[in-house]
Design brief:
heterodimer, A: 249 residues, alpha/beta, Rossmann fold, 2 domains, 4-stranded antiparallel beta sheet, 37% helix, globular, B: 326 residues, mainly alpha, two-stranded antiparallel ribbon
């Protein structure tokens, strides 16, 4: 079964067609990348997949269930986890507490008032494992404000992992990272392959061509091509619209 | 089971100040002796305001919900003593049960409406509800209306006799201790983590799958209940229930107390209440003694104090003290 399917998704903002009849499929176990120039509507598309933005028309399916009318919370509880292009973390929390907040999200209601959240060894161990996976174990007691930009991006990934997701939406995880940090992140995402179905929105072409099983090119809200990285690389329309010099160089 | 939900840094300034403040409250009735009725009653008032502020702090400091209507729950609690007493229902347990039941219903309704919004709109809706309840109380002609309702005797709590001012004082102090302890535990619990998370980044909390509205509503109702208990105590202290207990200025004063003490600290509201009420008490006398012609301008000094706390101690009087081991 496909993890995530959109059918003829449409979203308009005033006269602008931010999402224009987008149909795409994230197969289970695959990494599907979306590339496209700035303003192509990538974040609007992710917003509709996560449920933060309601589409004007079309359908979103998660593991075969129509979730078009479902809330952000309902989709998250079905196993959809996301990271944000602009880091969205609890700033005054420590790294561990950010992940612990995520690890506590697996039950639909959590009305435990008495015991310390840190005494829940299952949730804490799971959080520590998620931090270890992204390489932030040593920074667990630092607040988000004390973390560097790259570390905050890694923490975004760790919070997504701690929810025990079934599908990941990654909105430009490499944005603003140094070369070394990027390489580590690419290696990390590579290790997720086969484990989680992923939808990756990314500007970094090297990363996309290294990681993706399937690439869709979004221009002015429309998908102009979908295919394997090799097909996309050699597609004349794509080169004209977007890749241009970067591929030739 | 551990008594403390987390390890306590006994040498941290916050812990030391907290212990000194609590010890001072324990000893106060002994220190002032049998002639010190005025001080005992004043300190009881401080404790009752602190209790209400601890309730408000739970949603304001930890949940980021700025309620400008929490005095309505104090007023409701006070009338839950006054009205039954008027009909010769003297049991304090009955008064407490009325206060808890009615507040739970009212707060669920108000919270469910107000929490559909955030920010300024949330402030205005909570204020609007409080104003409505204020005028409901004014319209209760049978119960004194605008003039308020005099209460003939204190609630009868059976074995816990609160007829004397000192016993009422210790009852209020016990209520404050209990509220401090429960909010300390709740703040560190999984529930508290989610509540704090919804304040720190509601978008993230939702995206993780937390139905934050549910948690916020429960927190709002709990916070209102604490204020209602404060109202029950206040009615017993003053032997009076009045619409003025639900005035928006009192709601505002509670916010000032919470911020003055230190937003997001469990103990801050008690320190804030001590600071504000003690200053309100001594500044008029002080100003009158030094500048008799400017007696009515004492508020200027209070304003300066709040100004400097806001400017210099961004995290309030107690919140600015070091709490951890670092």
């Amino acid at each position: 079964m496909s993890a995530l399917v959109t059918t003829s998704l449409v979203k308009r903002f005033g006269g602008v067609q931010a999402t224009d009849n987008v149909s795409l499929t994230v197969e289970s176990g695959q990494l599907h990348a979306i590339i496209g120039p700035n303003g192509a509507g990538k974040s609007t598309l992710i917003g509709q997949l996560a449920g933060e933005i309601k589409p004007d028309a079309g359908r979103v399916e998660l593991f075969g269930n129509d979730v078009t009318a479902q809330s952000v919370v309902a989709r998250a509880n079905m196993g959809l986890a996301r990271t944000y292009q602009i880091t969205q973390l609890a700033k005054e929390f420590t790294a561990l507490d950010n992940v612990l907040l995520a690890a506590n999200a697996k039950v639909s209601s959590n009305f435990r008032f008495w015991a310390n959240a840190h005494a829940d060894t299952h949730a804490v161990n799971q959080s520590l494992a998620a931090l270890a996976k992204v390489g932030l174990l040593d920074a667990k007691d630092r607040t988000v404000g004390e973390l560097g930009h790259g570390e905050q991006r890694q923490l975004e990934i760790a919070t997504a992992l701690a929810t025990e997701p079934k599908v990941l939406l990654l909105d430009e995880p490499l944005a603003g990272m140094s070369q070394g940090e990027s390489a580590a992140m690419i290696a990390l995402l590579k290790s997720f392959k086969g484990r989680y179905p992923m939808l990756l929105v990314e500007h970094d072409m090297d990363a996309v061509f290294q990681l993706a099983d399937c690439v869709s090119v979004l221009v002015y809200g429309r998908i102009i091509a979908t295919g394997t990285p090799e097909e996309i690389r050699s597609n004349a329309d794509v080169r004209a619209a977007y890749l241009g010099d970067e591929v030739n160089a | 089971m551990n008594l403390f939900p987390t390890s306590v840094h006994w040498r941290a300034p916050r812990t030391i100040v907290a212990i000194i403040v609590l010890a001072a409250f324990v000893l106060l009735p002994f220190a002032v002796g049998s002639e010190g009725d005025f001080y005992v009653k004043f300190a009881t008032r401080v404790l009752i305001y602190a209790l209400a502020a601890i309730g408000l702090n739970f949603i304001l400091g930890f949940g980021g919900m700025v309620s400008l209507g929490h005095a309505m729950y104090i007023m409701l609690g006070a009338y839950c003593v006054g009205i039954p007493m008027h009909h010769e229902i003297t049991s304090g347990w009955a008064h407490l049960a009325f206060a808890i039941a009615l507040t739970a219903v009212l707060a669920t309704v108000v919270g469910a409406v107000a929490l559909r919004t955030t920010g300024i709109a949330f402030i205005m809706i909570t204020l609007a509800f409080a104003q409505m309840l204020f005028f409901v109380a004014v319209s209760l002609k049978e119960y004194g209306g605008d003039d308020g309702l005099t209460i003939a005797a204190r609630s009868n709590f059976g074995l816990f006799d609160i007829a004397s001012n000192v016993s009422l004082y210790y009852l209020a102090f016990s209520a404050v201790l209990l509220a401090l302890y429960l909010s300390w535990r709740a703040v560190l619990s999984p529930f508290g983590l989610i509540l704090r998370g919804s304040k720190a980044n509601s978008r993230r909390a939702l995206a993780l799958g937390h139905p934050i509205l549910r948690y916020q509503l429960v927190a709002y109702v709990l916070s209102a209940l604490v204020c209602a208990v404060a109202g029950v105590l206040l009615a017993n202290l003053t032997q009076f229930a009045s619409p003025s207990y639900g005035a928006w200025t009192l709601s505002g004063e509670l916010i000032v107390i919470v911020i003055l003490g230190g937003l997001g600290t469990v103990f801050g509201p008690l320190v804030g209440a001590v600071c504000l009420l003690v200053l309100e008490e001594i500044l008029p006398t002080l100003v009158e003694a030094t500048f008799p012609d400017y007696k009515s301008n004492w508020m200027l000094l209070l304003g300066l104090f709040i100004f400097f706390v806001a400017l210099l101690l961004k995290r309030g009087v107690f919140g600015s003290l070091r709490g951890g081991a670092k």
